[in-house]
Amino acid sequence: MTMEPWFITTDPVAGHWHQQRVIASWSNLPTTLLPIGLGYYVMAVLVQLPTTKLIRFAMLPPLLWLIVTASMTLDLSFGRPEHAYNNLVFLSMFSVAMRLTTWTLANEPYVRVCDTENVSQNGSAKNSSSTRSSSYSDGIRNAMWNACDLCCNLRGLGWNWSKGLHIPRPMFKVESRLTFAALSLVRFALYVMALSAVDLFTKRVAPEGSGGWSIFDPSLPPRLRYLRSSIITVVAGFAVWITVEMTYQFYAAIFTLLFRQRPSQWPPMFDQPWFATSLTRFWAKCWHQGVREWLVAIGSRPLEPFLGSHAPIGAFILSAIFHEVGVRGMDRDGDILAVGGYFIMHGVGVALERLFKRVTRRRVGGFGGFLWMWTWQIIWGNPLVDAMARKGVIARSEFFFESWNPAVFILNTLQWIWETRTQYTVI
Fold first, then answer.
1. What is the pTM for the complete model shown?
2. What per-residue confidence (pLDDT) applies to 402?
3. How far, in Å, CA of 123 to CA of 168, rounded?
4. What are residue 81's phi and psi, to 5 degrees?
5. HSE-CB of 307 using CA atoms within 13 angstroms
6. What is the tens place of the pLDDT at every residue in 86-106?
7. 372 lies in some domain
8. Residues 152 and 204 in one domain
């Protein structure tokens, strides 16, 4: 198929940031990450104790400086910038920085409560003001123990700050740690297979030998062109969902087996986002809530006195910055209009739903809401995925090294079986 000259862009090359990075090794990881981890833990202890706000404010600037330094100096791609692993460094460091900032600004101490008391019957976190909570956070010793949970507990399960958190119900309840861990490992393996298939698909739809490329193929008629780009966009969205689920299932198995956590501490991460009947429901309940804590505390809550019910637009703006930083972390220069625009326009979409409710006195929902949600996702997802593809994030970024891709291994095995069977048939 003949491509227009602008369809294939220049092959991305390692930029200034990548050239200044040092390949991660056992010699530099402790000196780079250990101070951040230690500071992160100490802040998790302090946020549970009263009258520590001044100490937290004093600790925040040096910790942020260490985070920025680690983000810009560590190379987890091992000298191969086409791999996606530096994206994880930037996203992780940005998330840690936002959590540290949230803990610094907290006016009330964080309190750990019972898991069984923290979940209401409709699957949402209660306002945890139980009188039993004092037995969990009374004193520095308990704070040091609870800080281990707080550092890893991104959704706030079992904590008083998770008010309003939606907790998806599991498909079936499992009490046994061993059974739950085994099921998590099976899910992990299935998600690995699914992600490898998606990774292989994205490589196949890219023009051969291309680095950066556009998902809009000008050699196709407009309808087929945008149908193709929309399919790629939806597949890319599923890839994000699969990646988060895969990671979550792995940690669920590890923490229940090695750290003896209960299965109830690992409820589902998503609540069927593909069936959401509104943008509000998609982002508030169906999509993962792993970064909800700091998106609300830093993004939307400061805007409530000025914007009232429209303050959540601040969370979408902060999310836009978060994901733009992730792209730039791969040394791709980013595209704030396409990447950031996707999240900002979803904030606009949520505001439109609230306006619709105010005018009609009806919530967006049902089959019409389902179509609206998917239409908005695809409209603004197309420029986002196209920007990623042009920057080489799709064609050159790899979740798996080519020789380790499970889908490639299965296809090669099936091909070998077929060829062997054909040879015996001929004989």
1. 0.85
2. 56
3. 6
4. -65, -10
5. 15
6. 667 788 899 999 999 999 999
7. no
8. no
